[in-house]
Structure formats: C-alpha cells, structure tokens
Amino acid sequence: MTGQPIEPVILQEVGPRDGLQNETVVLSVETRAEIIDLLADAGLPRIQIGSFVNPRLVPQMAETDKVFRRLKNRKGVRHSVLALNRRGLEAALTAGLEHVEIFVSASETHSMKNSNMTMSEALAQALDMIDLAISHGVGVTAGVMCALGCFYEGAVPVDRVVDIVSALEERGPTEICLADTAGMGRPQDVRALLSAVLRNIPPERIALHLHDTYGFGLADLRVALEMGVRSFDTSVAGLGGCPFIPGAKGNIATETVIETLESMNFRTGVDLGKVRGVAVELRRLLGR
Length: 288
What we know:
By secondary structure, the protein is an alpha/beta fold. It contains eleven helices and ten strands. The chain has one domain: TIM Barrel. The chain is 41% helix and 17% strand. Strand 4, helix 4 and strand 5 (99-105) form a beta-alpha-beta unit.
C-alpha cells in the first residue's frame, strides 16, 4: 500500500478487562489504574477498563468502580466497561461511566456458561439494558460473542448473527461489535460475516474483537480492513481469553497490530514504544 493515502484506524485497548480477567494473578485497584493511565499516555483513544461482574466468579475485575475513580481525566479518551447483566449496568451508571459494552452470545451453550441464560433470555435482557443506558445518556457498544464460531458448538450460522445484530441495532447503539470469542474465525469466515452485516450497517459503525487462538487474528484483521472496517479491539502483550472457554487465547496484541497497520500505511496515533513498555511491565507483574 506504499504511496496510498494514510487512513486512520481506531484501536480499543481491552487488556485491562479481557486480558486481566483470564490471569491467575489479581492486580490491585491502584496497579490496574496505573496501567490504564499508561495506556492512555501511549495515545490509545479507547480503553476497556474492566467489567461489572460477580467478583466471586471473576475476582480480577473486583472494584472496577474504584479503578475508574482513580483514573486521570483525559480529553479524547473513552473509558468503557463490560456490563454482563442489568445489575452490572446499574453499577456502571452509578459509577459515572460514559460508555458501556453490552454483549450477547450467538451460541446457546456459551450463553448458558457465560450468563446462565438462554440466547433469547440474554438478548431480551441486553435490549432492555441498551434502552436503560441510552436513557441515561450513556454510549453503548452492542456486541455479539462467538460471532465467528463456538468452542462448544462449532460453526455459528451467519444468519443467526445477523438476526442478533439486527435486534441490537434497532435499539440505536453507538456501534456494533462482532467478537471472535473463541478465536475460531478464519479469513473466509470474516469475509462471509461482514458481507452479510454490512448490507444494513455501514463499516464505520462496526468494530471487530479478534482473538488469536489459532493464529488467524492478523489475517482476519486484514480482511476486515479490505472491507472497510476501521475499528478493532486489541490487547497489550496479547493477554486475555475467555474464562468460560478452555484454551481461548488473548486478543491480537496491540503492539503487533500497530506494527502491522503502519506497514500497510494506516495510522493509529498510538506510540508503539510506550505500548511495548506497558507490555513489559504487565508481563513482570503477572510473572510471565
């Protein structure tokens, strides 16, 4: 792509949530806040700082409200949290978050393991949550987990994902995120899913959350770029996974994605050296 116009790509850093939730080491509120501030210093415009979930099930995410209160207020940086249920959303609203992420699974088995709800129950709850968040003036990323395959059920029909996306889109979220939670998506799967979703939603309102379980993360990202998507979730040091999917590795690494995008003449506005510094510090803290 040498000589082509430089295009911006938005990266959302999910390491403080998706990364840390799968680690055995539980970092303190103070340390988590320091890491998030360092990521913001590196120029990451969107950072998923944690989630409001049952601390007994995911102790790594305990006291996310306290983490948020310790963060420096930076203009142009969007701090968001994952809200798995209405109670989590209410906690996020009480804490004063300006953006929340609300996801449902496209897999019946994963839905039960992740939320103890059927897909239809989880979708009904998510739609109500989107309405509640928007009524409070809060931005919403509405997403579909296991959009490119399920560890338990295998391939997920594209039509099923499209139906869920359509239901979410009717509620007017800020953006739609398609998550390859199990990392099973291949480039041809990404192309097929985006071809269907983009019939009704423009690419600038789509984000991809890609895991690298089988090493296809960057190849999947390249396909999405070809199809006009310019927003991606990444995780510093490639940390992460899903507590409810055995062997699910982390997201594509933030530092690797920055290098890849720069080689393709895209720009992120993120300082690669600073992100690498955070990656080194996180590995030290986590004993890697």
